[in-house]
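Bench notes, afternoon.
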Amino acid sequence: MKHNRNPLAEAIRYGLGASVLASLAMTASPVVAQDDDEEDAETLDRVQVTGSRIISPIVTSSAPVTEIGEEEIQFTGTTRIEDLVGQYPQAAAVSDAFTVNPTAGFPTVSLRGLGANRTLTLVNGHRLPPGGIRSQARDLNQIPAALVKNVEILTGGASAVYGSDAMAGVVNFILDTDFTGFSIQAGWNAYQHDNSNSYMQGLQDARGFEYDSGDSGFDGQSKFVDISMGGFFDGGRGHAMAWVTYRDNDEMLQGERDYSSCALNGSGTACGGSATAPDPNFLVFEVDRDLNFIRSPVPGGTAHIDSNGVWQPGFDAVYNYAPINHYQRPDKRWTFGSSIRYDVNDRFRPYMETMFANTNGAVQIAQSGTFAVNQLNFDCSDPLITTLCSDLGVNPDNLAQVYVLKRNIEGGPRTANLEASNFRVVTGFEGDINESWTYDVSYLHARNSSSEANQNDFIPSRLAEALLLCPPGSSATCQPYNVWTPTSDVSPAQAAAQGGTGTRVGKTQLQVFNAFVSGDTGFALPTADGVPISLVGGYEWRKDRFQVISDANMESGNFAGLGGPRPSIDGEFSVNEFFAEAAVPVLADAGIIDSFALDLGFRYSDYSTSGGVETYKIGFASQILNDYRVRGGYNRAIRAANVGELFSQQQIALWGGADPCAGPNPTASAAACALTGVSADQYGSVPDNPASQYNQFIGGNPDLDPEVADTWTLGVVATPIAGLQVAVDYWNIAIEDRIGTIGASTILNQCLQGNTALCGNVQRGGSGDLWIGSDPNSSGLIVNSSQNFGEFNFSGVDLNVAYSFEAFGGTISTSLAGAYFLEQEVVPLPGSDNDAAYDCAGRINDTDGCQTPNWQHVANVRYSTGDWTVSARWRMIGRMNYRDGNGDLTTDQILVGNGNRVGSYHFYDLSGSYNFLGNYSATVGVNNIFDKEPPLVGSTLALNGNSIGGYDQLGRYIFATIGADF
């Protein structure tokens, strides 16, 4: 990417939009160029860093900041900004293009693994608005990668400066609003992979599954065009710029890679899948005439009808749902934006920034089915079930309770079509009060309008009569759905009659008014060699609104494959805040200490929902012997509950994991399972879910208080030789009064271990299951409600190295950004009982949801000479050992064969660029040169496609970009 700063001979007045043109009405004179040196002279004395509002020529950060430059975007072929940010060890891309079920439908960023809701995301120092229907996290789709000048990642709390959410830190995307010239960039990228995984192909051969083999060719392609323009006007007193970008990402299915085209079982030893299969399976239980559970007549209640029409114990076969699932979600995105500033005089400089993004995407998962959501109770003489009672041993004086597991292969996959439109405008004015003080007043208004259409899912209320083959009294539209024959006897028309489309529309709104003054007091400590104390004081008002309206079927959860209701939400909160900062120079030229300064901050926040709370910070930065800087600080940070956490309705939802009491050979003892509600008769016969999905009951809580964090950082920056800078920083984040849930898996396992206080949260179904049905009053589930409890205790060390030098007729630039996790302790239970605490640092497991490498880094080497640049990159993701909360080893045989761990992974990238004919450039590159596959795991550990997240998912990534700059 090349941003041209050369003068323009003629005006650039197009593409700014009506709103911007209106604001320019008073300055209709032609755009003229301004010399770079003139611009630099105007801005030299105004420096502001992420994590502070202090504006000063001497300000330095007391907190560690990792910077990702625009060159990284160019030389990695980035079109999705989350792909690049997520490769850095401090951050993780959440709900990225490779997250499918579940997914927010848009990408977000999470620092230190603490979640997107604890990471404050800014654009040019102002908040990015929430994303849409499925999540209130910040949608990175709004950010145009082509206009990102750099990304600053601040570690540690920053609530005293920015308010709520900055608990793990801040990610500030700084756009090139000073862009001058005209630029057009166009590019293409795609994946390519050699499908030659003998292990996965062998498992699929054993099941007779089809899969792709050999060279995949180019797939998962993306095309983009980015246009930017900008220039000065009115003799250089004003500057305006605008951009438009278009991106089109193709979909990819799991069936397009051999390692993902069958769903592994939990142990990773065979192709598993779902019991909801093309030829139906059944769950059969014996109940009395009052529908009270008596027993499972066959192990686990599982049954099928064989080719002779005889009912047999066990499932006939599970369904391989993987091939039709998305591996990479598709999307099309347009973004528009502009920036304008004008210096009326030194005391009044108005400005405006606008951003607009429209994204159309889709999520595709396997076909719907009956999913055992309809409870059918038959007298043994009922002709539909013919010989069921005699074949399976049900007492004819009782009833046979039957649940059907039939996959809708006649009707095609389930899809959710997602559309979101985001608009954000920041307008304000700044100026000089006098020679020492400045002011800044701004207003941010942002709105997101989004919609979701879920298609091709079954409606249980229709299935209820269709499964009984439309008996007398059925609705006029009833179409029989015959599952009572050895093989499926359903036509596409009959399947279509059972389905429907569920819709949701939503709207989020963010308003922020901010005003502050900044300047130096003219007062200096006697030891500070005349350097004055700088202050900031200000006020902020913020309002968040979140609204989702679901149609009747979504509201009630009347879809078989939805996993639970999607109730409407409507809520808002506001906050009034007063804040202050001070930069206090303490020492100057005191022996070996060149300088020592304190960084102080305080904010008082009054929330409409939870009342007042205080945040504060104290940091320091000291320059020693010219070449060494020591920095550190303490921050008290908070995060107020968002609208969804406050006002979401109670509902059934899914959680992934394992039930140790299920199946013919439970891993938990009969005594332990009895604590969770499994009777002696049920033990060894509790139905297990082959897809490892179970029910939980979740919802909002309007009485939530803000969670509180204490964050500490301490580091040193050394520049021992010219061109070399080394930074080592320790960080520690401790969060109390955590807003969240205990976790369904933790509740279940804690109960099994004897924590009887949690056993009341385990509600087993009639057969002892935790997954059959969708009625919260009778279905098996775990109650997992939101509260203020538990803790996070995270700590680690960051290493950042940069070294540049001249050699071989050019410049060699090297850098390394690495992070080591010392601790990632989660204390999920309230009070002082830490029996359930677990540490995820360097671990992976399914019981606690751990997935944290002990070390990660990104290293770059770049050589530039003349018009040529060559760049190489090494990305390393460290090992993760398997240990659950009890120290037990995994049953995942893939990990067992690798020493009970996921080993270290190394990815290598290479790219080059060439500038030609003065104004043109071309960049080509390959990421993951050696086509390394992601680590494979069994179903209880997998995120998508038999893999965990955070790794290159689809193989070799090839990209090419051509641009013109004038």
